[in-house]
Design brief:
The complex is a heterodimer of chains A (114) and B (114). Chain A contains no helices and eleven strands. With 114 residues, chain A is mostly beta strands. In chain A, strands 2, 4, 5, 9, 10 and 11 form a six-stranded mixed beta sheet that branches. In chain A, strands 1-3-8-7-6 form a five-stranded antiparallel beta sheet, with no helix packed on it. In chain A, a hairpin with a 2-residue loop joins strand 6 and strand 7 (62-67). The mean pLDDT of chain A is 93. With 114 residues, chain B is mainly beta. Helices cover 0% and strands 44% of the residues of chain B. Chain B has strands at 4-7, 10-13, 19-25, 31-37, 44-49, 56-57, 65-66, 76-78, 87-94, 104-105, 109-113. In chain B, strands 2, 4, 5, 6, 9, 10 and 11 form a seven-stranded mixed beta sheet that branches. Chain B has a four-stranded antiparallel beta sheet with strand order 1-3-8-7, with no helix packed on it. Chain B is globular and about 40 Å long. Classes of the chains: A mainly beta (114), B mainly beta (114). The A-B interface holds A 1, 32, 34, 38, 40, 42-46, 49, 87, 89, 93, 95, 98, 100-102, 104, 106-107, 109 and B 31, 40-43, 45, 48, 50, 58-59, 90, 94, 96, 100-108.
Chain lengths: 114, 114
């Protein structure tokens, strides 16, 4: 089955700096890669996703890049703000067929210091 | 408003009691999932369902059981609660027909077994 590794497990940055979280996956057939943000005491919420036919996707200060050959994808947050502090989870799945399970990474605790 | 609802939000119960955690969604989704998560930690899939009368065990072994008699309802039952069951339980759903891989999470139930 799919295995997703996520690094780092904790990340501390100064407000205004950029933050990068990296994930690797094992199943070359995986073609859907979402990122979830979970604030303290809240539910995980999708912030951005990318499919394997695209190399990069941006949404304001957030971007995700995908390298299918190397089987890794990354979340980039620019101009970080204190409200970006949360746990971020990457995930991978195979779109299509009957299996829609997401395999999650173990999460990255991002702290943005004012 | 289309959403996923979980009740109770918090539950403190004694060892040996039977409990049912409720999950309902008004999003019209056919796939539903249960995850176990210690605060801020990894998401562990314990059960999922493709639709009515379909249930599958997830990646993490669990002593709980689930049922799916109605599309919108996916309750999780613990026949005899133990302190090791203390955790947060998150319900999620996804849509087979459209954004089938994207999972939307409920607010969670925090369970404490004494």
């Amino acid at each position: 089955g799919e295995n997703v590794e996520q690094h780092p497990s904790t990340l501390s940055v100064q407000e205004g700096d950029s933050a990068v979280i990296k994930c690797t996956y094992s199943d070359s057939a995986s073609n859907y890669f979402p990122w979830y943000k979970q604030e303290l005491g809240k539910r995980p919420q999708l912030i951005i996703d990318i499919r394997s036919n695209v190399g990069e996707k941006k949404d304001q200060r957030i971007a995700v890049t995908l390298n299918k050959t190397a089987k890794h994808f990354s979340l980039h947050i620019t101009e970080t703000q204190p409200e970006d502090s949360a746990v971020y989870f990457c995930a991978a799945s195979l779109s299509g067929g009957s299996n829609y399970k997401l395999t999650f990474g173990k999460g990255t605790l991002l702290t943005v210091n004012p | 408003e289309a959403d996923i609802y979980q009740t109770p939000r918090y539950l403190v119960i004694g060892t040996g009691k039977k409990i049912t955690l409720e999950c309902s969604q008004t999003m019209g989704h056919d796939k539903m999932y249960w995850y176990q998560q210690d605060p801020g930690m990894e998401l562990h899939l314990i059960h999922y369902s493709y639709g009515v009368n379909s249930t599958e065990k997830g990646d993490l072994s669990s002593e709980s059981t689930v049922s799916r008699i109605r599309t919108e309802h996916f309750p999780l039952t613990l026949e005899s609660a133990r302190p090791s069951h203390t955790s947060q339980y998150l319900c999620a759903s996804s849509d087979l027909l459209t954004r089938k891989e994207t999972q939307y999470f409920g607010p969670g139930t925090r369970l404490l077994v004494l």
